[in-house]
Specification:
The complex is a heterodimer.
Chain A: H1 11-22, E1 27-29, E2 35-38, E3 47-54, E4 71-77, H2 83-93, E5 99-104, H3 107-122, E6 127-132, H4 153-165, H5 170-183, E7 184-192, E8 210-213, E9 224-227, H6 231-243, E10 253-260, H7 266-282, E11 286-293, E12 302-310, H8 313-320, E13 323-324, E14 329-330
Parallel strand pairs in A: 3-4, 3-5, 5-6, 10-11
Antiparallel strand pairs in A: 1-2, 2-4, 7-8, 7-12, 8-9, 10-12, 13-14
Chain B: H1 4-18, H2 20-30, H3 35-49, H4 57-71, H5 76-90, H6 99-117, H7 127-142, H8 147-167, H9 188-205
Helix pairs in contact in B: 1-3, 1-9, 2-3, 2-9, 3-4, 4-5, 5-6, 6-7, 7-8, 7-9, 8-9
Classes of the chains: A alpha/beta, B mainly alpha.
């Protein structure tokens, strides 16, 4: 394993210090916790708090700022943060109007965030939650933990964040967050696995000509392994699975995210996006906005995900609203 | 001079830390390659946080549960944390371990894990080791066996439970994303749970 680290034990701490050092105008760290909150606080508005394991940077700390999140918790690499950390984030972010937790659907995340929410409610803080589950690679049935929350979560941050910034109540913010969740779907793939620093070796092994389709964002293997094709062929596979949801039809408008997993050249992401646009054009689906870049990564994984969000006038307005955060700036 | 409960917890911690890489490798096959790393971090903290001189088993287990909850993370943190904290209630104020209390603690741990994780037997989780182990323990205790002997048989059942997890697909936790591809692999949580029971068995027999 070759990594630019000082040691595996202090990675999260050192990353947060470095992030705060780079963006003091946006974020500050809670003393003694792996939590960042807005530098100027969140008084008088509904607070949005998200988080999860580290290794997904810029998620989630990079989205703390005006128009998006109010607090973010960074767990150990790919490991849900603990309830005490989430609880501190809720308390610090609370601006007196309630707190909405944006939780990605993983067993650990849901358990730890829910325990923290219970603790905060005991303190009299109004807390509600939404759970993102946009990954169509995973079958949604009573027989699984349910779909994973992946890159589509960023659209929840953006849109619910805009609603909260505009003075929306906790119920309003939750409603638009759930509207996004109902209309957003993603699917990802990897040409190469990531290496968790503490583990020291790749999370799975792929042959020179193999790819993993339906990959998550934690180095977990995908749903099937196959021979590599062209990026157009791969993008078609991801898109077809997303289209099979039946949400995106001719005449609809969508926001698109072509998300890099951390080790993918932007050049390749743009090549993929060219094809995504062609396919959407061919289907008569109008693109309202496109995001291409590393929004929700998986350490050094090489691969990408495609996310589609069906938008209506309300979602478009909130998506287009200004945001000013370390990793997402929109004027 | 440290108390018996502390000595036993320390042995469990050493066992988990010793098997850090093994547990992580199991998790790499079907999960996200962090079970051993997270559990080892948690139990390292347990050794440091639990008072070696407090003989109250309830206190020691409660501190263990709270420490795991705040240091392990993932799903294992809340699940193991809850298991120890529920077991702690059975032992509150006690300095000796009886067979009945041990059985009640295992049942309380199961109930806590089920409440937190919404899992049943047969979903490829730690419960697939803990539940059959508890059944066998109850049965042997009812038949008049000593706790050490009953736990010896319970560990056999827990190991059979690990073998059973190899034959089924996960329907809970991160391994459930793999569907049938999780078949053939043993569950890391069932494995760490069995290690825990085996360490207590060896401690009681020594």
């Amino acid at each position: 394993m070759k990594k630019l680290i000082n040691g595996v034990d202090n990675i999260v701490d050192e990353m947060l210090e470095g992030m705060v050092a780079a963006y003091p105008q946006y974020i500050k760290r809670l003393d003694g916790f792996d939590v960042v909150v807005r530098a100027g606080g969140s008084k008088g508005k509904v607070a949005l708090v998200s988080g999860g394991g580290s290794g997904h940077e810029p998620a989630h700390g990079g989205y703390v700022g005006k128009g998006m999140l109010d607090g973010a918790i960074a767990g150990a690499v790919f490991t849900s943060p603990t309830p005490d950390q989430v609880y501190e984030a809720i308390k610090a972010a609370d601006g007196g109007k309630g707190v909405l937790l944006v939780i990605k659907n993983y067993t650990g995340d849901v358990m730890n965030f829910e325990m923290a929410a219970d603790m905060a409610r005991d303190e009299g803080i109004e807390v509600d939650q939404v759970i993102t589950a946009d990954d169509v690679a995973v079958e949604n049935s009573t027989w699984t933990t349910g779909r994973r929350g992946i890159a589509g979560t960023i659209f929840v941050h953006k849109i619910a964040g805009a609603c909260a910034e505009a003075g929306g109540s906790l119920a309003d913010v939750k409603r638009v967050a759930e509207k996004v969740i109902a209309n957003v779907r993603s699917m990802g793939m990897a040409v190469d696995a990531c290496t968790v620093p503490a583990a020291g070796k790749p999370s799975f092994d792929l042959a020179e000509d193999e790819i993993e389709i339906g990959i998550g964002i934690h180095g977990e293997p995908g749903v099937n392994r196959e021979k590599i094709g062209t990026v157009n062929e791969i993008a078609d596979k991801l898109l077809n699975k997303i289209f099979a949801e039946g949400i995106y039809n001719s005449g609809d408008e969508v926001a698109v995210m072509v998300n890099g997993m951390g080790g993918t050249p932007l050049m390749e992401l743009f090549v993929a996006n060219k094809h995504v646009k062609e396919v959407l054009d061919g289907k008569g689906i109008k693109i309202h906005k496109t995001l291409v870049g590393n929004y929700m990564t998986s350490l050094d994984m090489e691969g990408f995900s495609i996310t589609l969000l069906k938008v209506d006038d309300e979602l478009k307005k909130l998506l287009d609203a200004p945001a000013d955060t370390p990793a997402f700036v929109q004027v | 001079m440290s108390t018996r409960v502390y000595d036993c917890l320390k042995l469990i911690a050493e066992k988990i830390i010793e098997n850090k890489d093994f547990l992580t490798d199991l998790d790499r096959e079907i999960g996200d390659a962090d079970h051993g790393v997270n559990m080892a971090r948690g139990f390292q903290a347990v050794i440091e946080k639990v008072d070696p001189e407090d003989a109250d088993i309830g206190n020691a287990l409660k501190k263990t549960g709270m420490t795991l909850l705040s240091t392990v993370g993932g799903a294992s943190g809340p699940l193991y944390g809850t298991a120890y904290m529920e077991a702690a209630k059975v032992f509150a104020g006690k300095t000796e371990v009886s067979g009945d209390d041990f059985k009640a603690a295992m049942e309380a741990a199961i109930a806590g894990i089920q409440k937190r994780g919404h899992a049943e037997k047969g979903e490829k989780t730690m419960l697939d080791a803990l539940m059959p182990a508890t059944d066998v323990l109850s049965e042997k205790l009812a038949g008049g066996a000593s706790l050490a002997d009953a736990l010896t048989d319970a560990c056999v059942a827990a190991n059979e439970g690990i073998e059973f997890t190899k034959t089924i697909a996960a329907t809970k936790g991160r391994a459930s994303y793999l569907g049938d591809r999780s078949i053939g692999h043993q569950d890391p949580g069932a494995t760490s749970l069995t290690m825990t029971l085996e360490t207590i068995r060896d401690f009681l027999k020594a």
